[in-house]
Task: structure prediction
Amino acid sequence: MKPLLLLLALSIPAFAEPNALTPEEKKEGFKLLFDGKSLDGWRSFKSDKAKEQWKVEDGAIVLTAGGGKDLITVDQYADFDFRCEWKIAKQGNSGIMWRSTEEHRAPYETGPEYQILDSFKQDGHKYTHETNKGNIAGSFYDIIPGKEEWSKPVGEWNETRIVVQGTKIKLYLNGNLTADVDTSTPEYQALLDKSKFKTWKHFNKAPKGHIVFQDHGDQVAFRSIRIKTL
Result:
């Protein structure tokens, strides 16, 4: 049995610990946006620091209760490859926005959203209006719907990747490509015209902005947050 156990051990791929870069990510130029211990580099929307509802617990950034405002990066980004892990509370809702700016009432007025949700349909789900439209985890919110099977069960860590370069956007959830769109094309405009953002004149217009974790009032946790500028 010992040779077999050794063979099995050698066949298991080596993954980075939470909040650490893999050797490949270091070589590619990724940097951590969260050290696993503090909220350095983050603050609440239109605030000089993170509000008390955003805490670091067990090596993750956690929204413990609503009222913390959306949490944004201090730095702004234009083109990037962003990656993180997250888990959501039962019937919870959150999101990740990008290229969000602060001159308006809320980050979503400028920044598109990668939806985070307890995606699985269930009796009494308070976000049935979202699940019915496909506005579930991994979706390009209200633009391109998602699929239930992309998500892991509530309480498990999901892996997100967001790649933005110029007008091109690619979204991933747990290795699944969930959206691949060029926002300069007629195809995207047709999708936009069917969404709530059709008449929002500032939506997805900023050339750069903050990465945003949404405070939707539900508990959500983020870790292994890293980015590479493109």
